[in-house]
Design goal:
alpha/beta, 7-stranded mixed sheet, 5-stranded antiparallel sheet, 32% helix
């Protein structure tokens, strides 16, 4: 048995880890994959704010950057960040690196990345003590390990996720906040936006939110390197750590012009092709902004004047 954070790190990012071999698009559907309207909203945001560059952290195969490049050829400096090597078919105008550049003048965006950053998992035992949760990487079997003694962890839990009752769990956000704080600190001018599913103090999941996915389906949570392992983000703590503001994706995208309104039926008779195109666009916009789905994602926006 080893601590969850250690097992999780090895399973996703170790030498044979899941994200060393796999592409996100092959296993789950993000806003980027759902519709080009998401990229159009990002383009609207950078134009409104006068930015000329987009750095996509956790870029996968560069889907967002490819769409931006096609929509606004030559307008933006585009750069992808991912552990996997640069895709062979990526347009040569798009930069690529395994780490966020030291200096970002523009928009730094991380879409569904922080939920995949490993963090410590702790549980309140029957005696009222907080203990580190241990796991067998091969089977997913768990047991309670040593007492939580780190003062920073205890302070974070006390402020953000107390889990007062025996059996309650927390996923400690300190490691995620440290990573994102470092990334945001590299933005010299512009903005940093983290987009993820998450929770706030008034709706924490009492037993944690560890999940695993493979080939588009939820599977058992086993950190063996064969599946994606994820947990929701404590978004209020993250926003506090980077001086960010919190908004739901549905509200942000509507402000950026992504509206799922059906086209008028009269268009079907006057211009059937235009009607079908508008109907498809409305359907995609509705998916991106839907309550109970992608619209519930949180945007943590940190502006850097």
């Amino acid at each position: 048995m080893i601590a969850w954070r250690e097992a999780w790190q090895e399973a996703l990012y170790g030498p044979g880890g899941f994200y060393r071999r796999e592409h996100p698009v092959d296993h789950f559907r993000t806003s980027v994959h759902a519709s080009d309207a998401f990229a159009a909203a990002v383009l609207t945001y950078v134009r409104r704010t006068g930015l000329r560059a987009v750095v996509d952290a956790g870029a996968g195969r560069g889907e967002l950057l490819r769409t931006l490049d096609a929509a606004a050829p030559g307008e933006l400096d585009l750069h992808g960040v991912d552990l996997r090597p640069r895709p062979d078919d990526l347009p040569p105008t798009i930069g690529w690196s395994p780490e966020v550049p030291d200096s970002v003048d523009g928009l730094l965006i991380a879409n569904e990345l922080l939920d995949n950053l490993p963090c410590d998992v702790v549980e309140r035992d029957e005696d009222g003590s907080l203990r580190v949760v241990m796991v067998d990487p091969a089977t997913g079997e768990e047991e309670l390990g040593p007492l939580v003694r780190d003062p920073d962890t205890l302070a974070w839990l006390d402020r953000w996720w107390p889990c007062p009752d025996p059996g309650e769990r927390a996923e400690v956000g300190l490691s995620r906040e440290a990573w994102w704080r470092d990334a945001v600190g590299r933005v010299v001018r512009g903005a940093a936006i983290a987009i993820d599913y998450g929770h706030r103090a008034d709706d924490r999941p009492p037993f944690g939110s560890l999940r695993a996915y493979r080939s588009g389906a939820e599977v058992d949570v086993v950190p063996d390197g064969t599946r994606d392992v994820t947990a929701h983000v404590a978004v209020d703590a993250l926003a506090d750590a980077v001086g960010g503001t919190l908004r739901r994706q549905r509200d942000v995208l509507r402000d950026l012009g992504v509206v799922g309104a059906r086209p008028p039926l009269t268009l079907a008779s006057t211009d059937p092709h235009a009607y079908l195109a508008a109907l498809a666009a409305a359907s995609e916009a509705a998916e991106l902004t839907a309550a109970g789905g992608l619209g519930d994602f949180w945007w943590i926006v940190t502006e850097v004047p």
